[in-house]
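=== Structure Prediction Worksheet ===
Name of assembly: unnamed complex
Input type: mixed (protein and possibly other molecules)
Chain count: two
Listed entries:
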Amino acid sequence: MLRYIRNRFIAMIPVLVGMSMLVFVTMRLIPGDAAVVFLGTKPTPEAIAAFREKAGLDKPMYLQYFDWIGRLAKGDLGISLTTGSDIGTELATRLPITAELTLLSMLVAVVVAVPLGVIAAIRHNSIVDLGLTSLGMIGLSLPNFWLGTLLVYFFAIKNPWFPPGGYIPFSEDPIGNLKSMALPALSLGLVSASVIMRMTRSSMLEVVRQDYVRTAQAKGLGQRAVITGHLLKNALIPVITVIGMEFGYIFGGAFLVEAVFYLPGIATYALLAINQRDYPVLQTIVLLVTLVFMLINLLVDVLYTYLDPRLRIG
Amino acid sequence: MAVSAPSIARQARVRGSAPIWVHRLRGNRLALVGGTIVAIVVLVALLAPVLAPHSPYEQFTSDQLVGPSPTYPLGTDEFGRDVLSRVLFGARISIQVAAISVSIGLLIGGTFGLLAAYRGGAWDMAIMRVADVLFAFPSLLLAIAVLALLGPSLANVMVAIGIIFIPIFVRVTRAAGLVIVNEQYVEASRASGASGVRIALRHVLPNTLAPLLVQTTLAISYAILAEASLSFLGLGAQPPEPSWGSMLSSGRGFMTFAPWTAFAPGAAIFIAILGFNILGDGLRDVLDPRMKV
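=== Predicted Assembly ===
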């Protein structure tokens, strides 16, 4: 198991290196000079030269790349071109917001999806199954930013039960924090729940046909014991893959939902950086998100080698 | 007794794959429902100038943010433009972006996928590693990064979404292609001296069509969502273009007293995506029975 994880880590390195080069070069191709954005509309040539030297923009591109990687390795994420603030500090306040949104959304998705998927599978071809699969199809097709908009209208404007937007830190007001995150987490989570529910249902139906399930039933186990002891553990393997993939979706969806609910997370930061051509910020965020995405994929693979020992060889 | 040629042909048709799946498709309720919704959306896109009661750009300055009425069935927006007309014209943008971006992904991804499957070895290795790198990005983030590079516009949205699809189509075509490359009829064709391109186009491509068709339908649904998302963020269609995403984004500001400005475009996005998703599910049931539960 440890060897497997180590090998997977080693396999991540070339992808990460490729990715970092791609991101680095791409960001430098963005039209518009950062110096002009930073220094205002009419900077003197001297000011531009001084700025370029300070930001290291006068060096050859490959040297800039190695500088950047070297500093990243030391934990120095660089300085924002537009605000001059430390990117690491900024991320440290914004990352927890996006992380909270992601985790709460995932929680909503799993808590809703897995039980409903199991129920749909047990009641296969019944009216309950039809209702749940139709609901799943509807959820799958709902754009999260529209769902968020509808939730704001009905549960913040028509009935002011939740705030329509903004963020309250957990340390200041735990209840307020959860209230401010409820609608965003529902917007993202319910859409993912549809995907996970569909997978849970079809995966359960696949497993129900297996011989060992018939054996378990034949030896007189109750329905509950068969479901929890035999069906779920085996049916969960593909479900976990989908949950892992949904993390990526939720991360992408955070861009929209943070915009809908005015949450100051990293997605909002990235959008700001795009508009201001602040490429040190942008390249750091892209790389960070990619790294997180890869680590989640790794975690998913590790989880299912744990659940399915047959996958451990190789 | 000699069997007449037409009857053999008829038998072959019955046994041949295409007519059977076409027949099954007709009997599939999901495909029918999805197909109907998709047909309506496409028709709306084509006939928008005929169906729309007003121009999507005309500003009736005395009728700003007016609620639904016979003159303005879905009300007007903050500039006094007819929301229904803008939603109808919005279908054009969505379908156009979806068609072009999926074509980009299909052409580039499909070509490289076939190449990887057919050539194998170093080609396969190189193509798949590049696809892996593209795949490692969360898709919407990839599109956002591309738009940051190219600048916000509808044309760039098509490119950005097309790039998302490339690794997906590479994988689907390669996987389907790999199975077929090892079939005996391909070997026979190779032995009889057919060129690589001929084998790829004559044998491998037609047999990868079923999974490609399913993937294409789902890709269109994703493209519609992605275009709306990017325009919602201000990275896609620019005002005054009637994109569903940007209409929803600006309508949100008036939601307290004019909710129709946000509801209508959102509902349009939802219906279009729903149609393609249902059609995709139906097609998968028919074309790829292993996936059916």
